[in-house]
Design a protein that fits this description.
The chain is α/β, with parallel strands linked by helices. It is 38% helix and 23% strand. It contains seven helices and eleven strands. A six-stranded mixed beta sheet has the order 7-8-9-3-10-11, with helices on both faces. Strands 2-1-4 form a three-stranded antiparallel beta sheet, with no helix packed on it. A two-stranded antiparallel sheet has the order 5-6. A hairpin with a 2-residue loop joins strand 1 and strand 2. The chain is globular.
Length: 213
C-alpha cells in the first residue's frame, strides 16, 4: 500500500499511509481508539476503497478491480475475526462456520465436513450444535476463527480479537493466532491497542492519527 488516503466527507482519517506486509508475516498494527486502525483494516480486507493511493495484493492492483472481483478476492483470500465475534445468533456454530463456504459455492457435504474439521481444530467438536448464546466468549471467538478459516484464506485480519475476553481466554485465542501463523503458514494482521500483545508479533507498526509510524 502506498499513499493510502481515506476521507469521510471533510474528515481525513488516513492522511497517506504506506504499508507492506510480507507473505507469512505476523504483523501487529497497534494504536489507540480512533487512530485509524479499523479504517485501514477495512481497506486491507477489501471491504472499503481508499479515496486515493495504490494497493497491490499478490501483485494484483486492487483499485483497478471491480466490486465483483473484490468480493471474489475477499472470499477466497481473506478471513476476518472481529472483537464482537459477529456470529449469526439464530444458527448453530456448525452453520456459522459453513456460511462463507455457501457464498463460495462449496457443496453441502463438503461444507459440513470442513466445518466439523475446523471446529475440531478449535477444540469445539462437542459444541457444533450449540447456538452462539449457549457459548462462552472464548468459545464464540474460536467459532469466529474457524469461520475465518472456512475457505482456506492466505490472510487473516483480526480486529481486536481479544478485546472482549478475559486475560486467560484471551491468552488461548492469542495462542491460536500464533499457531495459525507458525504451523499453518497464514499471514496474520493483528490489530490491537494492547502493546503487550503487539510485542508478541513478528513485527509491529504503530498508528497515530491515521499515520503509520
Amino acid at each position: 500500500m502506498r499513499g493510502i488516503v481515506k476521507k469521510f466527507g471533510p474528515v481525513t482519517v488516513l492522511p497517506g499511509s504506506d504499508l507492506e506486509v510480507e507473505e507469512g508475516e505476523f504483523l501487529a498494527i497497534e494504536g489507540q481508539s480512533g487512530s485509524g486502525k479499523s479504517t485501514l483494516m477495512n481497506i486491507i480486507g477489501l471491504l472499503d476503497r481508499p479515496t486515493s493511493g495504490s494497493y497491490f495484493l499478490g501483485g494484483e492492483d486492487m483499485l483497478e478491480s471491480s466490486d465483483d472481483e473484490l468480493a471474489r478476492l475477499r472470499a477466497d483470500n481473506i478471513g476476518f475475526v472481529f472483537q464482537n465475534f459477529n456470529l449469526i445468533g439464530r444458527i448453530t456454530a456448525q452453520k456459522n462456520v459453513e456460511m462463507p463456504m455457501i457464498y463460495a459455492g462449496v457443496s453441502a457435504s463438503e461444507r459440513s465436513r470442513r466445518a466439523a474439521e475446523l471446529l475440531e481444530m478449535m477444540g469445539l467438536s462437542s459444541h457444533r450444535d450449540h447456538l452462539p448464546n449457549e457459548l462462552s466468549g472464548g468459545q464464540k471467538q474460536r467459532v469466529a476463527i474457524a469461520r475465518a478459516l472456512a475457505n482456506s484464506p492466505e490472510i487473516i485480519l483480526a480486529d481486536e480479537p481479544t478485546g472482549a475476553l478475559d486475560s486467560t481466554t484471551g491468552r488461548v485465542v492469542m495462542d491460536l493466532f500464533h499457531s495459525l501463523n507458525r504451523d499453518h503458514g497464514k499471514t496474520v494482521v493483528f490489530i490491537t491497542h494492547n502493546p503487550n500483545l503487539a510485542a508478541e508479533c513478528s513485527r509491529k507498526v504503530v498508528m497515530v492519527d491515521g499515520a503509520i509510524l
